[in-house]
Amino acid sequence: MRLGLRIWILIIALILALLSIAPWKALENGVLIRSIEVNSTEFNQGLRQGQIINTIDGKEVKNLQDFSDIINKKNFSTGIIKTIISTDQGEFILFSNKTPEFTISKIPTSNIKTGLDLSGGSRALVKAQEKDLSSSEINDLISVVSNRLNVYGIVDVQISPVRDLSGNNFMMVEIAGATPADLKNLISQQGKFEAKIGNQTVFVGGQDKDITSVCRGDPTCAVVETCQQSGEGYSCTFRFSIYLSEDAAKRHAEITKTLSVNTTQQGRYLNESLDLYLDDQLVDTLLISEDLKGRITTQVSISGPGSGTTNEEAFNDAEENMHKLQTILITGSLPYKLEIVKLDTISPNLGKEFTRNIILLGLVVFLIISITLFIKYGRIKLTLSVILTMFSEAVLTLGVAAMISWNLDAPSIAGIIAGMGTGVNDQIVIIEESVSNKHINLRERIKRALFIILGAFFTIIAAMLPLFWAGAGMLKGFALTTIIGVTVGILITRPAFAEIIRRMEE
Amino acid sequence: MEENKTTEENIIKPREKFKFNYDKYYKLMLLIPIIILLASLIYLGVFYSKTGDFIYKDVSLSGGTSITINGEIDQQLLNLGLQQKFPDISFTKLEDIATGKEIALIVESSASSEELKTEIENILGYKLTEENSSIEFTGAALSQEFYKQLITALIISFILMSIVIFILFRTLIPATAVIFAVFADIVMPLALIDILGIKLSAAGIAAFLMLIGYSVDTDILLTSRVLKTKEESVNTRIFKAFKTGFFMNITALAAVLPAFFIITGLPDSFRQIFLILAIGLFADILNTWLTNASIIKWYCEKKGIQ
Question: N or C: which end of chain B has fewer CB within 10 A?
Answer without folding.
Answer: N
